[in-house]
């Protein structure tokens, strides 16, 4: 049997796209050294962009999205992996122009594949997924730039989203005093349970763009949204503090002034979780599985199946998603 179930996005004419679960053939997967039977994937904002026909993410359709996959090696032509190994793949071209984790099988280069760390189950690894990896990279960069618990409040924007919610939980687990920015007035309790000490309304971060500088407030920040909010975060960092910038839900463009950089010596740190070397990803996964392991990871996520994805994709595109969605691929 070579057919398998997968979500597929197709052009339905006049620039419209539709997404449904179909049967695909393993022989139609791209070439690669490792064939993986996917057990879990997860839903990220980028998957929703791909599934809605965004050509900046996926050039040609029909296409199976899913930038994350965790599962079991079914076939391998390289010595590093053997049938039965439990593995994780995130980023690179998976789910962009290579058929992704929203299908029961993926075939990928061995250079994209990481063995599941002993401290994380396949489901837990996808509870984190690209969002968790990105949140960890953001925090790692802040710490490399000198941030320590006790320095003061650390801001997380887009806090109820995938990257944001894991960033809040990780920072709090590491002993930081977390302020969570959200546009969802009804999700304060969710953020407090993740460990946020203060909830900041999104509108407060959108005001004051006309001012050259804002009150020194944040010892560090994880920004998942970009746009005017990032501009204001840069202007309200404490002297010498840093913001990790990883997302664009509020916009790709943001205004800039050299003043915060030359008057307060602040740092803007770019974070990419997709094309970084596999060894860097592996070291983050190791951290996430041991010293940074979130004790309540299973409770932080909701589980859905492939059939639930079309509605979940609409919700995440509308900025309505709270927390992480793990996708059971059975
Ligand atoms: P989610 O949709 O889960 O989270 C985004 C959150 O941003 C929303 O939940 C919402 O949180 C907030 N938000 C939504 N719309 C707006 C808006 N117009 N203005 C301000 N805030 C808004 O997405 P992900 O967590 O999956 O991804 C977050 C961002 O990070 C995306 O832009 C994604 O492309 C990027 N990303 C980048 C990676 C990298 O390698 N650099 C890797 C992974 C993601 P709330 O309601 O709480 O404010």
The tally of structural domains comes to: 2
Taken from the alpha-carbon principal axes, the silhouette is globular
Roughly how much helix do the residues carry, as a percent range? 25-40%
The CATH homologous superfamily of the largest domain: Medium-chain alcohol dehydrogenases, catalytic domain
The CATH class name of the largest domain reads Alpha Beta
Mean pLDDT: 96
Q: Report the span from N to C terminus.
A: 16 Å
Portion in beta strands: 25-35%
Spell the H/E element sequence.
Answer: EEEHEEEEHEHEHEHEHEHEHEHE
Assembly context of the chains: single chain
Runs in which pLDDT lies below 50 for 5 or more consecutive residues are none
Structural category: alpha/beta
Strand tally, please? 15
Distinct small molecules: NADPH dihydro-nicotinamide-adenine-dinucleotide phosphate
The count of helical stretches stands at: 9
GO molecular function, one term: acryloyl-CoA reductase (NADPH) activity
Domain Enoyl reductase (ER): 15-327
EC number: 1.3.1.95
Keywords: Oxidoreductase
Structural description of this entry:
The protein has 330 residues and is an alpha/beta fold. The chain has two domains: 3-116 and 296-328, Medium-chain alcohol dehydrogenases, catalytic domain (Quinone Oxidoreductase, Chain A, domain 1, Alpha-Beta Complex); 130-270, 3-Layer(aba) Sandwich (Rossmann fold), CATH 3.40.50.720. It has nine helices and 15 strands. It has helices at residues 45-51, 122-144, 162-173, 188-194, 202-206, 227-235, 259-264, 278-289, 309-317; strands at residues 3-13, 16-25, 34-43, 68-76, 86-90, 105-108, 114-115, 153-156, 177-182, 198-201, 218-223, 237-245, 267-270, 301-305, 324-328. Strands 3, 4, 5, 6, 7, 14 and 15 form a seven-stranded mixed β-sheet that branches. The radius of gyration is 20 Å and the shape is globular. NADPH dihydro-nicotinamide-adenine-dinucleotide phosphate binds at residues 44-46, 130-131, 134, 158-164, 182-184, 202, 224-225, 229, 246-250, 271-274, 316, 319, 321. Residues 44-46, 130-131, 134, 158-164, 182-184, 202, 224-225, 229, 246-250, 271-274, 316, 319, 321 line the site of NADPH dihydro-nicotinamide-adenine-dinucleotide phosphate. Its EC number is 1.3.1.95. GO terms for molecular function: acryloyl-CoA reductase (NADH) activity; acryloyl-CoA reductase (NADPH) activity.
């Amino acid at each position: 049997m070579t057919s398998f179930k997968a979500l597929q996005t197709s052009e339905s004419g006049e620039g419209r796209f539709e997404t449904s679960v179909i049967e695909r053939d393993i022989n139609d997967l791209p070439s690669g050294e490792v064939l993986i039977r996917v057990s879990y994937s997860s839903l990220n904002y980028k998957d929703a962009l791909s599934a809605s026909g965004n050509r900046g993410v996926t050039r040609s359709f029909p296409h199976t999205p899913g930038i994350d996959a965790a599962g079991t090696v079914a076939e391998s032509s390289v010595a590093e992996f053997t049938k039965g190994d439990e593995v994780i793949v995130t980023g690179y071209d998976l789910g962009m122009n290579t058929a992704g984790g929203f299908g029961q099988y993926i075939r990928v280069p061995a250079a994209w594949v990481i063995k599941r760390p002993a401290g994380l189950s396949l489901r837990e690894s996808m509870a984190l997924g690209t969002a968790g990896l990105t949140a960890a990279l953001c925090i790692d960069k802040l710490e490399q730039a000198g941030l320590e618990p006790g320095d003061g409040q650390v801001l997380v924007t887009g806090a109820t989203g995938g990257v944001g919610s894991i960033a809040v939980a990780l920072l709090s687990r590491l002993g930081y005093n977390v302020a969570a920015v959200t546009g969802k007035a009804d999700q304060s309790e969710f953020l407090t349970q993740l460990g946020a000490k203060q909830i900041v309304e999104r509108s407060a971060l959108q005001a004051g763009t006309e001012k050259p500088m804002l009150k020194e407030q944040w010892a560090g920040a994880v920004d998942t949204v970009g746009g005017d909010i990032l501009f204001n975060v840069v202007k309200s960092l404490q002297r010498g503090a840093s913001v990790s910038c990883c997302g664009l839900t509020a916009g790709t463009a943001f205004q800039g002034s050299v003043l915060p950089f030359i008057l307060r010596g602040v740092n803007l740190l770019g974070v990419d979780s997709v094309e970084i070397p596999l060894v860097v990803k592996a070291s983050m996964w190791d951290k996430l599985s041991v010293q940074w392991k979130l004790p309540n990871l299973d409770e932080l996520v909701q589980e859905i199946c492939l059939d639930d994805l079309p509605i979940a994709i609409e919700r995440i595109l509308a900025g309505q998603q709270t927390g992480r969605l793990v996708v059971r691929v059975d």
